[in-house]
Each structure stands twice: as C-alpha cells, then as structure tokens.
Amino acid sequence: MDGVSAVRAYTLLAVLAIVAGGWMLNEAPEPDLIEDEMDTFAEIEAAPASAEDDSGADQPMETRKGGEEEEKSDSSDNLPTGLVAGGGAALGSLAVGSILFEAMRVTVLIALATPLLARMKANRDDMLTRGRILGYLEANAGIHFSALRDALGLANGVTAYHLHTLEGQGEVISWRDGKLRRYAISSLSKEELSRIRNPIGGTRLAILEVLADSGQIGLKGSDIQTKLQISRQLLSHHLSELKTAELVEPASESRRPNWRLSSVGLETLSSSRELARSEAAG
Question: Minimal CA–CA distance to 208: which of 268, 128, 135, 148?
C-alpha cells in the first residue's frame, strides 16, 4: 500500500504543478507594445559605432540595471513553463511506466482508478436493485412492502429508499390498503389499476359472499370448502390472505373457529359489488 500512497502523492504534485504553472502563465503581464520595441531598436541603430567598443564599465548605470531586470524577467517567465513541463513529464513517466511494467500498472490502477470504480459500482448496484424492484412489481402488481422486501431479500431501509426514489421519479405508484402499503408500476392502465386496488375477486370474492350470508355466526372452513368446492390447501391460502388484509376474522377463540366478515370486509364487499355493477352498466 506504500506504493499506492506514493503514486497518489506523486500524481497530486504533478497535477498541482501543471495547474500552478498554467495559472501563472495566464496571470503574466502582457509584453511591451510593438511600437516601444521598434523605438528602442531605432535608438540602438542610431548610436555611434564607437559606443559599441566601450566596455561595460563605461555604460550608464541605467543600462546595466535594465539588463539585470531583463535577466530576472526571463527567469520568472521560465518558472511557470518549467512547472507545466515538469508536471507533464511526471504524468508521462507514470503512463510510460504503466505500459512497460505490469507491477507499476497495477499500482497505478489501484491508486487512481479504484475510487472512481467504487463510486461507479455503487451507482450500478443502485440501478440493478431498482431494476429488480421494477421487474418484480411488473410481475406482482399490488404487492405490499413487506412481501416485496422479503421476496427480493432486501433490508427495510434499502427497500424504502429505492421505492421512495422510484416513486419520486414517477416509475412507481403506491396506496394504502388497511395496515399495508401496496406498490405497482405507474404504466398500468386505469382498468388494471382499478382491479389491483380492489383485489377481491375470483375465489376470495366468493368466500366473502359466502361469509356475508352467514352473518356474525360465520362458517367453519370445512363448510366454506364444501360450498365452493375447492381444496383445503387453497381455502387455507385465501383465508390467510383475507385475514392479513383484515377482511375476515375468527368468530371465536377456539382452535378451529368459524370465520366471518370484519367491518372492513363488509365495506370491501360492498365496494366490489358497486364496482361490478358500474362495469356491467358501462
């Protein structure tokens, strides 16, 4: 891991050198105007030839100071260029070393690519999880939160987070169903959504109809099974689902009680009958 830290520090210094050099080049003062340079050149050409033979000691002090300032200016101009060139050379050496040496290539990849790949992997996992949720909701429209969570093997927080995100994006809809919260994809037609929001149909609706005729006394499971001509396993499944939805309730505390409609079950049955009448009239 020491090599990884060294590569990161080396790369950071190289990038900082390039940035600093580029900033200094952008902030450098503009060169003198061309007219001033031409005037200076004309003055030099007009000077007597004997002046060219004079020694540096006989030159005016201003001329010597000007030369020193030009040397300092040249050195300051070379600094940003050197920073940019040095930073580029450092990054180039890393690139060349990565091409030539596998060990160095691995170190550079771990040092520079791993953080980016970790972020990409997190985003990809989120997308995969949401894709799984959408696919499951498409096949099981109207499923409630806990059943969806258990079916996909997700944690409570993860399931809630992704469902909230999908609902915010308009890809999922939800509604309250008693103590449950049910979900479906938003692309469902109105007819499908109406049927799903009122899931009492088929055998379950028949069970409610049979129990409605029995009043508060209710019926034993065997009596319901006989009236509807269904298997004991299928009846047990539907009764369990109806009980979870709080549509039916036991009429006593015995081990094998009679089953009767709850107040919620009566309202649901009434709504189902009204919906059936309106659909038939339409």
Answer: 268
- Closest by CA to 89, choosing from 4, 19, 18, is 18
CB count in 10 Å sphere of residue 81: 12
CATH topology of domain 198-281: Arc Repressor Mutant, subunit A (1.10.10)
- Write out residues in the chain with pLDDT < 50, as ranges: 1, 32-34, 38, 49-53, 55-57, 282
Type and span of the H or E element at 239 = helix 232-244
Distance CA 66, CA 70 (A): 6
- Per-residue pLDDT tens over the stretch 75-127: 556 877 887 888 888 888 878 877 876 656 656 766 676 566 555 556 778 88
> Given this chain, do its domains 124-194 and 198-281 carry the same CATH topology?
yes
Q: b/e per residue, 11-30, with b = 16+ CB within 10 A?
A: beebeebbeebeebeeeeee
CA-only gyration radius of the chain, Å = 42
- CATH 3.30.70.2740 given to domain 124-194: no
Give the three-state DSSP class for 174. strand
